[in-house]
Amino acid sequence: xxxxxxxxxxxxxxxxxxxxxxxxxxxxxxxxxxxxxxxxxxxxxxxxxxxxxxxxxxxxxxxxxxxxxxxxxxxxxxxxxxxxxxxxxxxxxxxxxxxxxxxxxxxxxxxxxxxxxxxxxxxxxxxxxxxxxxxxxxxxxxxxxxxxxxxxxxxxxxxxxxxxxxxxxxxxxxxxxxxxxxxxxxxxxxxxxxxxxxxxxxxxxxxxxxxxxxxxxxxxxxxxxxxxxxxxxxxxxxxxxxxxxxxxxxxxxxxxxxxxxxxxxxxxxxxxxxxxxxxxxxxxxxxxxxxxxxxxxxxxxxxxxxxxxxxxxxxxxxxxxxxxxxxxxxxxxxxxxxxxxxxxxxxxxxxxxx
Length: 354
Ligand code: BGC
Description:
single chain, mainly alpha, two-stranded antiparallel sheet, globular, binds beta-D-glucopyranose
């Protein structure tokens, strides 16, 4: 649907702040901030569709947000290396105000590492694609981020859904590995020790019955595991354990045409996520399964409203319908338009071979 493609670009560019930040969703009060995770995928999508200035402005915003916290990064690294416990005031937060300022939200689940790995990955792609070198403040911020991830990667943290802080999550590890590999390339620095450690952790601790699991110590599947291979390339797509994981996602997390996060998700009842369905389509396109990718993208297109705006999730095939209203009363109707949903739709449509 070319209209949805054009509209997705327009929605993202219109919402992007003059500072370069991408808000997750301006219409949804809790999401009027910029997340490293969402923003990095959005920047990647903008590069794919040729909107390189938009991506560059996001990366500059992200770099500035990190540089202004250089002291914190060094404190976190020092404490982590000494084996001392980290407090919330010692770690990089996951979401920021549109000027990069801190958000006063004492109890937000702020300790999440995946977004910083994803940022390095997207930054590396941006520069490779544009044939430019990562230098100046971007390079300084990339170095700080890699230092931070190298010191903290083993620690339990909130997952990419901002939950389960006491566990280590394979998706997060894969995002960190992709970021470290990107940093190796841009800075000519070896991260072999960390990359081998992450690979060992994935192959030795993150498999149950021949498939990857949501978090170490659990047995569940989670749709974000698609990230292990697409795009983070921590696991080969043709590894039978990765194929088994994709198969489980398709069998256990899809009742209708869309993909749920995990089988006990209760956020807005635990419906079908647009960005995850597009993510799975992206994976299938990379494998050359165009027919399957198109089926999934067709479902995504059907979720757009009359103004071609995509939501975060769709309240059908709910895991736990009782929770739907609980969340509507707490935070309002499901976020729409969610910029990350639009970004994943663009990525899945643009990048069959990446
Ligand atoms: C999701 C996160 C996302 C955030 C902003 C949360 O509900 O779980 O993955 O980064 O919304 O879109």
